[in-house]
Each structure stands twice: as C-alpha cells, then as structure tokens.
C-alpha cells in the first residue's frame, strides 16, 4: 500500500472496552487504539461490529450506556470505513469457518477485514499473531 496508511479492522469486543468504564486497563488500551485509528483515519469495521457493539454496551457490561449514548457512539463509528456483507461474503465466511475451524461469526469478521483492505484485525476472539488469508490477527490486550 504505497503512499497510504494500512487499514486496521476493529472487532466489537475491542470497541466495547473503549467505552466500558468498568474495564480498567483494557479500557485504556482500547481507547488508545480507537484514538490512534481516528487520528490516522485508518479504522474499519462492519455492520456486524456496530450491531454487536450496541447490544453489548447497552446491556452486557457492568455499567451499561444509555441508548442515547450508545447511538451517538454508533453514529461516530459509522464515519469509519464500514463493511456491509453480501451473500458471497457469507459463502466466503462459511468456507473460512470450515477450513480454519473458527466460529462462523469470527469468520465473518475476517472476511469483512479482508474485503475492507485491512492488514490487521484487532480482536481478542482469535489467536494473536495468527494470519488468516493475509490478515494478521492482533490482540491489543496481549502483553508483548
């Protein structure tokens, strides 16, 4: 990608921590990652990520956000490159799920990262430093 910054895909589990005031060190790490991606304009996500983010921050964290707060964050995050899957992407995810033996929803996230032109996928749901179809999986909470 000569002359342009590498794109980075962020899974919902990482974004949730950025807004979860009960997450301690993970909140700091996720918020710093989100801020870096905002500043570099290289953040990517998918409709699936936005949906999972909303459901989780409004009901599945220790200190849920209000619907209004969560909606504002979804609106802001929608300024990033947002991947919307097509039927062929579902088929690609099924193939990856079968081949790599990962959960189907994780395979959908990997397909979204690939189709978004990302080199890195930030998630804690897959193996850190693993490569799947050219995308490097990174867990921002793993001490290096």
Number of domains: 1
Which CATH top level class fits? Alpha Beta
Nearest-angstrom radius of gyration? 15 Å
- Low-confidence region ranges: none
DSSP strand content = 15-25%
The main β sheet shows up as: 6 strands, mixed
The secondary-structure class comes to alpha/beta
CATH topology: Rossmann fold
Number of strands: 6
What shape does the CA trace take? globular
Largest sheet: spatial strand order: 3-2-1-4-6-5
Q: Order of SSEs, N→C?
A: EHHEHHEHHEEE
Task: Describe the protein in words.
The protein is an alpha/beta fold and 144 residues long. The protein has one domain (7-138): Rossmann fold. Helices cover 51% and strands 15% of the residues. The protein contains six helices and six strands; from the N terminus they run βααβααβααβββ. The protein has helices spanning 12-19, 25-40, 47-59, 67-77, 87-100, 104-115; strands at residues 7-10, 43-46, 81-83, 118-122, 131-132, 135-138. Strands 3-2-1-4-6-5 form a six-stranded mixed sheet. Strand 5 (131-132) and strand 6 form a beta hairpin. Helix 1 (12-19) packs across helix 2 (25-40), helix 1 (12-19) crosses helix 3 and helix 5 (87-100) crosses helix 6 (104-115). The radius of gyration is 15 Å and the shape is globular. The two termini are 26 Å apart. 37% of the residues are buried.
């Amino acid at each position: 990608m000569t002359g342009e910054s590498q794109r980075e895909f962020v899974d919902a589990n990482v974004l949730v921590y950025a807004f979860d005031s009960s997450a301690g060190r993970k909140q700091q790490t996720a918020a710093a990652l989100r801020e870096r991606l905002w500043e570099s304009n290289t953040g990517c996500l998918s409709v699936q990520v936005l949906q999972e983010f909303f459901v989780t921050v409004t009901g599945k964290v220790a200190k849920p956000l209000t619907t209004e707060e969560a909606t504002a964050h979804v609106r802001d995050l929608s300024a990033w490159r947002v991947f919307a899957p097509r039927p062929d992407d579902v088929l690609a995810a099924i193939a990856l799920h079968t081949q790599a033996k990962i959960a189907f929803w994780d395979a959908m996230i990997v397909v979204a990262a690939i189709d978004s032109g990302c080199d890195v996928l930030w998630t804690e749901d897959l193996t850190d430093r693993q490569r799947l179809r050219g995308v490097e999986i990174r867990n921002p909470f793993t001490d290096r």
